[in-house]
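Researcher: Structure for this, please.
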Amino acid sequence: MRLHRERRILAKVAAVLGLFQGLAWASMSLAAIILHNWSPSLEQPTTYGKMLEYQIYLIFLKGNSDQPAQFAIRPTDFTIFMWIYFLISILWFALSADLFVAIHRGKRRQTNMMIIWGTLALIVSLVDLIFTCLLGRDYSVCDEDLTDETGLSPYYCFTAVGIVMTLAARGFALWLVNVTFAFLAIYVAANVIKEDTGFGSLHSFRSIPRATLAKSDTTGSLPRIENTDYVFSQPFRLPSLKMSQPKYSAEEPELPSFSTRGEKFTY
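Model: Predicted structure, token format:
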């Protein structure tokens, strides 16, 4: 069933969001996987930006880093999450591209693709929520004295973990947008399928349909009977239109009558 204009716009916006996020998060997760396995040699940072990059690498990417024991996300755990993000981001990108093509060309699979897209978006949002909660737990331990253990400054720890946590939550606002569009896509597609299968037909009629009778030609004149004495076949017969005058006998008295206005009756 072809979607209405408003529903097509909603599906296209959702597909564009999936294309953008799928490509962006697949690229970032692939870069994190490469850095974790490559282990490049880094020089001592001299600027604020370089120092921040160095702290992020030490906390989340360096394989043999002396990370604080109280951290929940260690480099190995972080890499596992990156593989999960890479796979679901590639799948989300492919589904979003197929959804956009299906909506643009009016394919029959567009409602099914909307349900699949919404389901995958909810899965991505659930992974984001779990990863963000774990990073939030690590963020809460940055206020402890980490200098003696790893040489990490609490300030840089807060900043590095906060940046990664914000990326995991997709800026928080984008996460809410994803959840909203996921539920809308599933809801709209389910309603379209419901209407297409006829379950919603009882609510679609504004009035009860009425039968249309065939029109007959009543404008013509009725047949005229010329001979009123025509006798039909037995046992039916038309009554004669000729009326006979009553006959009175001499013995019978005449009925009372009056000839003019105001006269008395005569017998």
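Researcher: Any notable elements?
Model: Residues 5-38 form the longest helix (34 residues). Helices lie at 5-38, 48-61, 75-105, 110-140, 147-150, 154-168, 173-197.
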